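Lecture 7 notes: from sequence to structure.
We start with the chain below.
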Amino acid sequence: MLVVELAFTPAPERLAARPAHRENLTRLRTEGRLLAAGPWSDDTGALLLFAADRDRLEEILDADPYYRRTPGVEVRSVREWTPVVGGLGFR
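Predicted structure tokens for the same chain:
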């Protein structure tokens, strides 16, 4: 699994792009590629948990302009995560 951390600024372009981005997240969730996603409570960024390898994640990020081309959105980090205990269906 891969965790993506985003950082936000209050750019109006980010807010305008958010509905299409969230539709894409819903599709990825339905496909089983996205396990969880959401903003920090202070809206300074977000965390997304993907069930994908690095190559597939790059394709996912490139396909959604929100990540690479929307002012006010920065991909801060991409990290591999190995859950030990959790309620998302892993062992």
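Points to note: Strands lie at 2-8, 34-39, 45-50, 73-80. Residues 12-30 form the longest helix (19 residues).
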